[in-house]
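Regression check, copper (II) ion case 160:
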Amino acid sequence: MRRMRNPRGLVLACLVSMLVACTPGAPPPPGGSQALVPGAVVIQVSLIKYQPQQTQFGKVAGYDNANLTVHVGAVIQFHNQDSFTHTASSVGTTGFPSGSPLTDKARSQSGSDLSQMEWSSGDLQPDAYSQPIHATAPGTYFYGCFFHYNTPMRGVITVQ
Ligand SMILES: [Cu+2]
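Current build output:
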């Protein structure tokens, strides 16, 4: 390969690396760069505002509505109202594990379907919206924040 010593070659190298970054299989971007989709159900995210409450599923907190019921076809987006980073990340369909099951993967945006087991908003910066997440199948979906799962910071979405 030719050495990239002239500016044109450098520009070409940058373009190529941008293309590579967009190919499937490349790491997903961090969350929070998304626009609000018209008609989306917004779940507000704030550890400051939304205190723990007891539900039939266990303790939830940090999201509003943290015990949300929607119909199949709904589109959900998370919106960070705090001045620090959160995530909304799937922890499965069978309940809240006692310790956090979330790994570093939760800090990158993944998934757009609630019934996919590994969806996550990725790192959601202050005032950012998550990607739209689609409720495609009935079920009970448990999620939490990578940073504050044990605080607790957890929520449930029931799709019927
Ligand atoms: Cu958090």
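Comparison notes: Confidence is low (pLDDT under 50) at residues 9-23. The longest helix spans residues 7-22. No diff flagged against the previous build.
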